[in-house]
Amino acid sequence: MLKPRSTPTRELVNLDGLWRFGIAGRVQDEPWTGRLDTPLEAAVPASYNDQFTDRAIRDHVGWVWYQRTVRVPRGWAGERVLLRFDAATHEGRVHVDDRLVAEHVGGYTPFEADITDAVRAGEEFRLTVGVNNELTNVTIPPGSLTVAQDGTRKQTYHHDFFNYAGLARSVWLFSRPATHVEDVTVVPGVDGATGTVDYAVRTSAPADVRVRALDAEGAEVATATGAEGTLRIDEVHLWQPGAAYLYDLVVEVLDGDTVVDSYTEPFGVRTVEVRGTQFLINGEPFYFTGFGKHEDTPVRGKGHDDAYLVHDFQLMEWVGANSFRTSHYPYAEEVLEFADRHGVVVIDETAAVGLNLAVQGGLSGRGASPTFSPETYNDQTQAAHAQHLRELIARDKNHPSVVMWCISNEPSSSEEGAREYFEPLVQLTRELDPTRPLTSTVWLLPNAETDLIADLFDVISLNRYYGWYIATGDLETAEDYLERDLRGWAAKYDKPIFMGEYGADTVSGLHSLWDIPWTEEYQQDYLDMNHRVFDRVEAFVGEHVWNFADFQTTRAIHRVDGNKKGVFSRDRRPKAAAHALRRRWLGLGNRKPGTQG
Questions:
Q1: Would you give the distance in Å from CA 353 to the centre of its chain?
Q2: Ranges in the chain annotated CATH 2.60.120.260
C-alpha cells in the first residue's frame, strides 16, 4: 500500500489534531449516527490511555470512539477521495456520516477507504472511527479476555509492554486520479559500478507507464517505459550504513502524452546477503550495534511524535548505534523513512510477540496449556499472522534501511507444533520478498539442540539474560553459561549469530560498590560480561541491547513503573551504561571486534 504523498496529480490533507472521544458504554450505542455524546477530546496521533486522569479510560477493554468533521477541498471534484489510517490499534471501523466504509484488524499496519461516493467536493462530512483494543488467541499479537462478576472486561496478554491503544499514528484525507498508480516495487542490485533497479508498477487500469530515476540533486539518471523493467544507473551512489544516499523513482501513468498520475518513491541502491557466518551489506561484513526499542513515551504512549523521533536518532548516533529492531511490531513509517535518510540499519519485526504459553511455567518451560493447539494458537492465529506479514512487507519492502525481516519474537520454538506453525509462514515471507534474510528471536530456554525451527532462518537471533533471569547477580557463572550456549549454536549451524536482546533492569541513580542487581554499576558490568563473550565467538555478527529506553508495562511485582532495562530512562536521560556503550561502539563502527576495517 503506497503512502499518501503530495504530487503533481495528488493532494492530501492531514487530519491530526483534537477529536471528540468516548469509550463504549459512555456514549450512544451507535455513535456514528450523530454527534458523539461526550465532553472529552483526545489528541491524534497518540494512544488514548494516558491522556486522561480517569483510570476507567486507561484500563478500558473494548471499543472507543473518535469523531470529527472533515471538509473535502472544493478542487477535488472529479478525483477519487480516500481516507488513510496509518494504524488503529488493534481493530478499526470507519464511518463516513452513517455509512460504514472500512474495517481492519491489525494494530500496526495501515488501511484506507475510498469514500468518493460518500462525499462531495467542498462539503463537510462526519468522520467517526471506532477502535477496539481486544486481543484474543486468534489475533496478532495474541491475548485472552475474561469478564468479572461485575461485568468488567479484563485483558490478559503475553507480552511485556503496556497495551496502548487508539489512533497512535496519523490520519489522512487524500485525492488521486481515477486511473492511478496502485503499487510500486523496487528491487535494487549492483553490477560493478552500475546500480540495477528492477521495478514493477501496478496500475488501477491498463495504461502506459513511464519511470524516471532522479539522483539526490534531481538530475535524471535513468528512464524506461512499461510497467515492469530494469533501470541501470551508471556510477551509482550506494546506500551505505552511516552514509545514506537516496534516489527518487518517479512513476507516471500516461494517456498519450498527458500525465494522468504521478507518484514518487524514494529508494536506495544496496545489496544484502548472508554468506556462511557473515552478514553482508554491499558485499562487506556488517556488525550490528544498537537496540531493541519501543514506541513508548510519556502521555503519548505509542503515539508517533516527530520530536521524539529526531531526539531518539540523535541519541543512537551519540551512543554509536548503527541499527535497531522494531520490537515488537512495525513502527510508524516515518521512522523507517528517517532511517532511510540517515543510514541507520533496521531489522523490521512483526507484531507476533507472545506466541509462547510455556513462559507461564516459568523457567521450567512447562506451560499450563500447549502453545500450538486448536484451543490456543491455531490455524486462525496462523492466518492472522500471515496477513500481518503480507501487510508489513507491502508497506516496507522499498525501504533500503530494512535489511532483515523478523517474523516473530520469542515463540515457543522447542514445543511440539512450532515447526508446523512457522514453516508455512517462512515460505510465505520468502515468496513475498526473496531479497532479504529472515530471522526470529529465540527466547531464554531453547538451546541449539532443543529448538525446532532455527534451521528455517538465515540468522540465529538469540534473546539471552544470563546474569539477570539466570545466575542473577553472579556474572562469573553467567559468562560461562553464555559462552557455552553461543558455542553450541555456532557448532550446529553455519549461520550468523546475533544477540537480539540482552539487558538488566536498572534504576537511575541506584549505586553500589558490589555486584548488586538494579544498580547502574551492575548494568555496566553485565554488558561488559556479554561483550567479552561476543568478542570470542567468530560467528557473532551483532548486539542489540534490551532496551534503548525504559518503557511502560502492565502492573507486576517485578516491574517498578515499567521495564527498567533501558540504557536511557523513559524521558531519555542516559544511565551510566550509555556512556560505556558509547566507548565500545564508537570504536567499532560497522566492524566486528578484532577485525580490520
A1: 12
A2: 12-176
Which amino acid would we find at residue 367? G
Give the number of other CB atoms < 10 A from CB of residue 447.
16
Q: What is the pLDDT of residues 45-101, one digit of tens each?
A: 999 999 999 999 999 999 999 999 999 999 999 999 999 999 999 999 999 999 999
Determine contact, residues 48/166, Cβ cutoff 8 Å. Answer: yes
Q: What percent of the chain has pLDDT over 70?
A: 98
pLDDT for 587 equals 87
Position 365 pLDDT exceeds 90: no
E strand or H helix at 438: strand 438-442
Report the 3 state secondary structure along 238-304: CCECCECCCEEEEEEEEECCEEEEEEEEEECCCCEEEECCEEEECCEECCEEEEECCCCECCCECCC
Closest to 193 measured CA to CA, from 282, 77, 122 = 282
Class of domain 273-588: alpha beta
The C-alpha atoms of residue 22 and residue 33 are separated, in whole angstroms, by 14
In the beta sheet, which residues pair with residue 197? 188, 231
* Helix residue ranges per DSSP H, 35-164: 55-58
Neighbour count for residue 427 (Cβ, 10 Å): 11
The second-level CATH assignment, the architecture, of 181-270 is Sandwich (2.60)
Overall fold of domain 12-176: Jelly Rolls (2.60.120)
Q: The dihedral of CA 144, 91, 292, 303: what is its sign?
A: negative
What are the start and end residues of each CATH 3.20.20.80 domain in the chain? 273-588
Give the chain's largest Cα–Cα span. 77
Backbone angles phi, psi at 92, to 5 degrees: -130, 145
Sorted by sequence, the CB contacts under 8 Å of residue 511 that are 6+ apart come out as 519, 520, 521
> What is this structure's pTM?
0.95
| Inter-residue contact 413 to 357 (CB < 8 Å) | no
C-alpha cell at position 478: 553467567
Burial 332-370 (b: 16+ CB within 10 A, else e): bbbbbbbbbbebbbbbbbbbbbbbbbbbeeeeebebeeb
Which of the residues are catalytic? 410, 501
Q: Kindly tell me if the per-residue pLDDT of 597 is higher than 50.
A: no
Burial of 121 (0-12, 13-18, 19+ CB in 10 A): middle
Q: What DSSP designation does 330 have? A: P
If you average pLDDT over residues 190-197, what whole number do you get?
A: 95
Q: How far apart are CA 161 and CA 107, in angstroms?
A: 14
Question: What residues does CATH 2.60.40.10 cover in the chain?
Answer: 181-270
The β-bridge partners of 171 are 85
Q: Return all residues near 36 (Cβ < 8 A) that are at least 6 apart.
A: 20, 21, 22, 27, 28, 65, 67, 128
Instruction: Quickly state the pLDDT bin for 360 (edges 50, 70, 90).
Output: low
The helix (run of H) or strand (run of E) holding residue 147 is strand 143-147
